[in-house]
């Protein structure tokens, strides 16, 4: 595919770019905090990490709502370049649909799990959130916890796929597609 110069009409707007990168960073941190804390024995560190993980999840949920509202307010992604193959357009649409589903499913399942096992979410230690589901420890442990874990791994897998596709476009195809979402990527033609 020929190199494409990205101009204002093919780039995401500054709010979309900011939300994208902020969500990306928070999701990665929340995932690795979740992995680390899961195998810790009961301790003050584990308790602190669980709280941080829940707080990050609630921030991801809030920013996902903000991102969806921003998009619904008329800030849709710019069109893909006309030369983009149909299968890549389809993959792009499906991947982003799954992203949005998981942006909501992962934190909501985590919130439901903690509510079911009777551990409230107190956002940043001062804002108690309502229980998302009634207390039912077996349901929380046997259903919601595994679902939260599965959805988290699915989100991690699609993040890896997304990053790989972006790097392929930038480094192999050299079509500068990554510049659509990069705040300060240099715009230059490939010779």
Characterization of the model:
By secondary structure, the chain is mostly helical. The protein has one domain (8-180): Fumarate Reductase Cytochrome B subunit, CATH 1.20.950. 64% of the residues lie in helices and 2% in strands. Strands 1-2 form a two-stranded antiparallel ribbon. A hairpin with a 3-residue loop joins β1 (122-123) and β2. It is elongated and about 55 Å long. The relative contact order is 0.15. Mean pLDDT is 88; it is low at 1-6.
Question: Which descriptors would you attach to this protein?
Answer:
disordered N terminus, 64% helix, mainly alpha, Fumarate Reductase Cytochrome B subunit, 191 residues, 2 strands, two-stranded antiparallel ribbon
- Count the E strands: 2
Q: Separation of termini?
A: 13 Å
Mean pLDDT: 88
Element string (H = helix, E = strand): HHHEEH
């Amino acid at each position: 595919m020929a190199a494409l110069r990205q101009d204002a009409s093919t780039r995401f707007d500054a709010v979309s770019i900011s939300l994208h990168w902020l969500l990306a960073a928070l999701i990665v941190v929340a995932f690795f905090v979740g992995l680390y804390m899961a195998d810790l024995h009961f301790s003050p560190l584990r308790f602190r990490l669980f709280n941080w993980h829940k707080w990050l999840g609630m921030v991801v949920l809030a920013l996902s709502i903000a991102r969806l509202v921003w998009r619904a307010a008329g800030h849709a992604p710019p069109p893909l370049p006309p030369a983009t193959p149909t299968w890549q357009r389809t993959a792009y649409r499906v991947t982003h649909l799954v992203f949005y589903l998981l942006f909501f499913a992962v934190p909501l399942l985590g919130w439901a799990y903690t509510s079911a096992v009777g551990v409230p979410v107190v956002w940043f230690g001062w804002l108690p959130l309502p229980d998302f589901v009634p207390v039912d420890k077996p349901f929380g442990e046997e259903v919601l916890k595994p679902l939260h874990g599965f959805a988290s791994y699915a989100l991690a897998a699609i993040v890896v796929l997304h990053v790989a596709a972006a790097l392929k476009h930038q480094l192999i195809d050299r079509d500068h597609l990554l510049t659509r979402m990069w705040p300060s990527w240099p715009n230059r033609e490939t010779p």
